[in-house]
Amino acid sequence: MEELKARQKKELKDMQSKIMQLKKSVNGNKKRKKEVQQEIQAMEAEIKERHQKEYDEFIANNTSESNVESNEVNKNNVDAESEDNVKSDVKTNTFPIPQQKQKKPNRQKLRKERKAAKLLAMQKEAEEEAKNMVNTRQVEDEAFQKKLDDLGLEIHEIIADGHCLYSSISHQLSLVGEEYSYKDLRRVAADYMRNHYDDFYPFLLNSNGELYTEAEYQRYCDDVEFTSLWGGQLETQAISQALEYPITIIQAESSPIEIGTNFDKEKLFISYHLHSFGLGEHYNSLVKKE
């Protein structure tokens, strides 16, 4: 038994030396490190299994009671020593964790975080202010409802697509038997404005706060006809004059705007909304309440 113990102990020491050599071969290679760890685990498992088998064979070949008792004691000692050695090997085979260099702060990330925090603070501030603000849409809607009730009118919704003025007048004209699309009315407005430069140019200013030049005015008329440029009171005036229809614009918080009052045709009614729609200013058509 002593001979067996000595040989097994020597084998454990030899395995320890081989393990140290394997560790040195890693040299910072992550893939190699994983392979070495697996190889070490296999070596430890193999030697433990083999030592146990050798002990079992030794016991089987020594069947006397005294030998069995003596060998049982030796078995415990061998097992304890082998297990201690294996545990020690496992501990010593743990690869040292390399100390990571302290990373420098990511300035771009810090800037983004500060910006996000600032935006969040502004959002919360805006929400607090909104709680104390008057709901202008609700106020406008309530004022509209009272005015329309007095006039016996109600709103016919028009799509908010940049053509709402022309579409609302188009709907009004359809009620009196006139068929004009919003594109037709854009062309009517643009042509009338082109031919009556002196009537409209004093009311148009460029980005510098100066009156339009004639070239700028002509470009504006082209935009009226060919783009989704928002229409307003000037374009309403042009359509009224060109088609000889009186047009009344109902507003929630102001008196109605009467255009083309000198014409005898049936009056057209549209509404002007400042706060009721998400895209901003908007026009709807007004019809008699049923």
- How does the overall form come out from the CA principal axes? rod-shaped
Count of the domains: 2
End-to-end Cα distance, whole Å, is: 113 Å
Alpha carbon gyration radius: 47 Å
Mean pLDDT: 81
Which band does the percent of strand residues land in? Answer: 5-15%
**How is the main sheet built?**
5 strands, mixed
Q: Assign the CATH class of the largest domain.
A: Alpha Beta
The CATH architecture of the largest domain would be Alpha-Beta Complex
Sketch the topology as an H/E string, one letter per element.
HHHHHEHHHHHEEEE
- What is CATH's topology name of the largest domain? Cathepsin B, Chain A
Tell me the structural class. alpha+beta
**What is the strand arrangement across the widest sheet?**
1-5-4-2-3
In terms of per-residue confidence, which ranges show pLDDT below 50 for 5 or more consecutive residues?
64-75, 86-95
Q: Helix count, per DSSP?
A: 10
The number of E-state strands comes to 5
Percent range of helical residues: 55-70%
If you had to describe this structure to a student in words, what would you say it looks like?
This protein is an alpha+beta fold and 290 residues long. The longest helix has 31 residues, at 30-60. It starts with a helix and ends with a strand. The protein has two domains: 2-92; 136-288, Cathepsin B, Chain A (Alpha-Beta Complex), CATH 3.90.70.80. A five-stranded mixed sheet has the order 1-5-4-2-3. Helix 1 runs parallel beside helix 3. 61% of the residues lie in helices and 9% in strands. The protein has ten helices and five strands, in the order αααααβαααααββββ. The chain has helices at residues 2-24, 30-60, 65-92, 107-132, 136-151, 164-175, 182-195, 197-200, 214-226, 233-243; strands spanning 153-156, 247-251, 257-259, 268-273, 282-288. The protein is rod-shaped. Residues 64-75 and 86-95 have low confidence and may be disordered. One of its GO terms (molecular function) is cysteine-type deubiquitinase activity. It comes from Piromyces finnis. Keywords: Coiled coil. Pfam families: OTU (PF02338).
